Amino acid sequence: MRLSILDQAPISSNQSAADALKSSMELAQAGENLGYTRFWIAEHHDLPGLACSAPEVMLGYIGANTAKIRIGSGAVLLPHYKPYKIAEVYNMLATLFPDRIDVGIGRAPGGSAEATNALSDNFLQQVWNMPNSVKDLLHFIDNNVPPEHPHAKVTASPIPTVPPIPWLLGTSKKSAILAAENGLAYAFGQFMSDQDGAAIIEQYRNHFKPRKNNEEPQVIVTVSAICAETLDKAEDVALSSLVWGLQRKRGEGQKGVPSIQEAKNYLRNEKEDLLSEMKRNIIIGNPQQVKKKIEELHVRYNADEIMIVTITHSPADKIQSYKLIADEILR
């Protein structure tokens, strides 16, 4: 089983944005040393507590400070941008870091309606036009624009020796079919979905049409997980993420990911069964417990790879979580 990392560059309550971005780079370094296959970083706009609005900038920083781990966007939010510009950016990254770049494509706004309007015009129209935008992006990445295309004379320079690998990210049958029809690898966001992921992935595999010769469908399933030496420790560490998620739903959380003690203080006046509902979509446990649940998901979803997103207050706890999982599964 391959394991990878998705990072959202969360800012802890005792960090600056610069601290959080540095922690993301150090997590990529740790992931490389631990044997993780790839490190993706997400794109968010004007969301308190999340530091990365420009994955392409972070990938230059991370690529320069790592040597072999694949790096990419999880995801670049295509409706905000012209496909040609995205192809230029990721071709340049693939030129700088040969055979290491993934370009994950998503359709979400990644922020508030106000941020969306500031970023782009006619966002909903561009979401509707997503199938055409995906095709255009692939034309530019493949350096194979049809002669009848309005931009047939344009090249997304520089052209790397090994092009970036495109992935489509999603949580629905619609995204799975779009990936399959375009011969794209597919990343299913289990950690942010209440859909029947196994059925969605099966539909993707059944409809897959190779874009190039001998291509096979490829599936990543992204899960949320927090691992510690004991279940009790993992439960404590997870409180920061759980409470921050609750705060954000309530329009709070502007101070970033709370410490464990801050989280406990926040929960004092909450209903006792609240945490059980909040834990529904996250794996929490010691190494053996986390391994068992990840292996169950791997089989249930018929996944080629499991990607893990972990939010903790302490960067050390986050790296330790990934280390314990790697030691249990990859060693």
Automatic annotation (TrEMBL):
User: Which GO-annotated molecular functions does the record name?
Assistant: oxidoreductase activity
Instruction: Give the matching Gene3D superfamilies.
Output: Luciferase-like domain (3.20.20.30)
The lineage, from the top, is:
Bacteria, Bacillati, Bacillota, Bacilli, Bacillales
Protein name per the record: LLM class flavin-dependent oxidoreductase
Entry's EC annotation: 1.-.-.-
UniProt-listed CDD domains = Flavin_utilizing_monoxygenases
Q: Which UniProt keywords apply?
A: Oxidoreductase
Q: What protein family does this chain belong to?
A: To bacterial alkanal monooxygenase alpha and beta chains.
Q: NCBIfam families from the entry?
A: oxido_grp_1
Oxidoreductase in keyword set: yes
Please tell me whether the keyword Oxidoreductase is annotated for this protein: yes
Q: One short Pfam family name for this protein?
A: Bac_luciferase
Residue span, Luciferase-like domain: 1-298
Cited InterPro entries: Bact_Lucif_Oxidored, CmoO-like, Luciferase-like_dom, Luciferase-like_sf
